Amino acid sequence: DLVDAGIDSLKVEGRMKTALYVATVARTYRKALDDYVQNPGLYEAHMPWYLEQIARCTYRQFTTGFFYGRPDESAQIYENSTYVKEYTYLGTVREVDGQGRCLVEQRNKFSVGEVIEIMKPDGADVEVTVERIQDAQDGGYQESAPHSRQALWVKLSQAPEPMDLLRRKE
Fold first, then answer.
1. d(C-alpha 164, C-alpha 92), whole Å
2. Which of 10, 49, 73, 134 is placed for a possible disulfide with 153 were both Cys, Cβ 3.0 to 4.6 Å?
3. Any long-range contacts for 113-116 (C-beta under 8 Å, 24+ apart)?
4. Torsion over CA: 30, 36, 42, 43 (sign)
5. What's the chain look like in SS3?
6. pLDDT tens digits for range 4-63
7. Is 128 in contact with 117 (CB distance < 8 Å)?
8. CA angle 56-148-116, nearest 5°?
């Protein structure tokens, strides 16, 4: 309906949201729009995937707002005002070196041996194991990454690419 209405730009609500939320919503809408333009049947076939992706990130229940006209009282959501959280945002990959390590700006704690996901812009989610963590400043090895915004060299069981996001299923 958005494409058919001639809308060529969307704003993702990002104020007071995590980078994981914004990245998930942006990549899901990007894929949905690309699929629809390629073939509306492909868009319909992938609908369960889009809904699953949006449901995985922190969110409240959704409404269509005023898109289909003035909402009536049934559009008001009373049941639940709390957020649902299925994933924790761990950090963003800033660069990858020749040794298979990635420089991560860490946001939440993770540990060596933990299984996490690389969230790719194309919609793929790659499960990996954290093999090694080193402080980017002093090179010291550590068993976990407990300090938010710490720069770390992380060795994963599969190398990510710059700007991939790392997350953990809760």
1. 6
2. 134
3. 114/168, 116/90, 116/156, 116/166, 116/167, 116/168
4. positive
5. CCCCCCCCCCCCCCCCCCHHHHHHHHHHHHHHHHHHHHCHHHHHHCHHHHHHHHHHCCECCCCCCCCCCCCCHHHCCCCCCCCECCEEEEEEEEEECCCCEEEEEECCCCECCCEEEEECCCCCEEEEEEEEEEECCCCCEECECCCCCCEEEEEECCCCCCCCEEEEEC
6. 888 888 888 777 777 888 888 888 999 999 999 999 999 999 999 998 888 777 556 667
7. yes
8. 40
Tokens 């919609």 -> residue: 123
User: What tokens appear for 13 in the block?
Assistant: 């609500």
Residues making up the chain, counted from first to last = 170
User: Which residue in the block uniquely carries the two structure tokens 């995985």?
Assistant: 56
Which amino acid belongs to residue 44?
A: E
Phi, psi (degrees; rounded to nearest 5) at 15: -65, 130
Place of tokens 């070196």: 97
pLDDT digits (tens, 9 = 90+) for 83-105: 556 888 999 999 999 888 999 98
